[in-house]
Amino acid sequence: MKSYKIGTLIGKTCMTPDDGMKVYELTYPELRAEHAVELDFDGVEIFASPFFNFAIGQLLRDISPDTLNRLLAFSHLNAVGNQILKQVIKNSKRYYATDDATRNAINEIVSQQVGNV
User: Fold this and answer.
1) CB 3.0–4.6 Å: which of 20, 38, 52, 91 could bond 73 by disulfide?
2) Which residues, including other chains, have CB under 8 Å from residue 77's CB and lie 6 or more apart?
3) CA distance 50 to 45
4) Main-chain dihedrals φ then ψ at residue 41, nearest 5 degrees
5) The model's pTM
6) pLDDT tens digit string along 46-80?
7) Where does residue 74 rank: exposed (0-12), middle (13-18), buried (19+ CB within 10 A)?
């Protein structure tokens, strides 16, 4: 099993999409090759959904939930991180289960909202 120490790789705060992409780029090829991966969050104190959306959520675009559950393990994830992760996975499953037209409409609404912030 390949193990990545997120506290060393990212730091004490896992919040940004860019940090999430770093994790995604490491884990995605391993998972697609059917290799088990552990994400060790020892030392990580703060989490935000944008990090998990990019690190984990988008894995569900190409990897089934069953395969992800079988191959991806998490350790030392605090209660807040675990809660955010569960919500991101739930949302990602629904998002990737919809048709392309619905996903495009969702993307358009989100991009408009982000532009208004």
Assistant:
1) 38
2) 39, 41, 44, 85
3) 15
4) -100, 20
5) 0.87
6) 999 999 999 999 999 999 999 999 999 999 999 99
7) middle
Phi, psi of 47 (to 5 degrees): -130, 155
CB-based burial label for 31 (10 Å; 0-12, 13-18, 19+): buried
Residue with token string 């809660």:
83
* Domain positions in the chain: 2-115
Cβ proximity of 84 and 52 under 8 Å: yes
From the CB of residue 55, how many other CB atoms can be counted at a distance below 10 Å?
Answer: 26
- Angle in degrees, CA 9, 12, 15, rounded to 5: 85
First to last CA, the chain: 41
Is 43 in contact with 12 (CB distance < 8 Å)? yes
Q: Pseudo-torsion of CA 93, 96, 98, 104, nearest 10°?
A: 140
Count of residues in the chain? 117
